Known about the structure:
- Helices cover 20% and strands 39% of the residues.
- By secondary structure, the chain is α+β, with helices and mostly antiparallel strands.
- The strands form two sheets. An eight-stranded antiparallel β-sheet has the order 3-4-5-6-10-9-8-7, with helices on one face.
- 19% of the residues are buried.
Amino acid sequence: MDPLIDRNTGSVHLDKQWTLTPGLSVEHLANLIGNRLSGTDRVTRWFSHIPVKTLVGDFNLTLVFSGEVLMAMRAQPKIDYKSNEIDTKAKMDAMLNKLLGPPTNERFVVSSEIARTLFRIVRMEWPKGAKELTWELSWGRVISSVDSKDVVPEFKLQWKI
Length: 161
């Protein structure tokens, strides 16, 4: 089976029948994602909480469309009850490094004491060393970070359309 993310094309291989490529239409994905429109802001609409199983793990996906065209996806790994968010982020980063090579940019997830205080308010203590990693590629960008609302690890893929 193909790798989760194809470094050369930006295709995301979720399973044998389902591959995401830049510019797919809502109509093309309708049978796979169902009619679960989660939100819209007139120009952008998104479908969230789509469970998928891949060879590298289980994820909850959010697919983001500009008009009718797929422009981005967000994947949050399902966290095993034996592990925690920090371990899950480290495993996700290792997987992305293996697939995409070294990141082109790094910055700390918790970059200031103010941000650290905000994380503590939601009862999540991220270590000072936790980093947001970015890969700039010819077809788009991949960002490994932490969802600021749910405080769980995630990676986002944004295609150049």
